[in-house]
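Possible regression after last week's pipeline update?

I re-ran a chain I had predicted before the update to compare outputs. Posting the input and the new output here so someone can diff against the archived version. Not blocking, just want to make sure nothing changed silently.
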Amino acid sequence: MKKYFFLLVIAGLILSGCSSDENLLVDPNQTNSKVEKSQPLVIETGFIQLPVMKQTGNNITSDLTDAALIYGNKGGELEVEGKFGISKSGVVEVHGTLDIPRGAFKGSKILSMSADKGSTSVTFGPSGSHFDKSLLLDLKYDGLNLDGVDISKIQFAYLSSDGVYIIVPNDGIEIDVKEGKLEVHGAHIDHFSRFGFVR
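New output (post-update):
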């Protein structure tokens, strides 16, 4: 009987350790300070989720979006700002600015940025666009409930088409657990997809 129990325990350990290698780990000691180059990242939960929202009049909104016709030879800016619902932790506010430098692309394009109402992420469009110069994103959330979150694991990343989260080069991440603040400065956006805070 002890043999069978032992075999079951070993089999359980082997099966629980054999999970999908969908996300590859490059540097398990990566901090949330300035990041110089992109790196694949193993994460446990994906983009950090926003609290479940209640229907409370004007305090709830759909995704926040800004779109504009941008001329590559002039550059421009996209900005999203607003509040997402009320939860136990209060109102979550988001403010994001995408700086599009002169010469980032040729011609003109309608570009968009949308802050997701369910997570600490933004989606840029048209999806798949690539740029000659990095666009720079500053993104800030206030009012998050960060209790119990290991802040040393928080990174800013994008979700690649094959399901891997890639850490984005940036000028630093600020985290204030007491105020519920997450902020990334100067995140380098070289292409358009979905970007956000992961842990």
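Follow-up from reviewer: compared with the archived run. The mean pLDDT is 78. Marking as no regression found.
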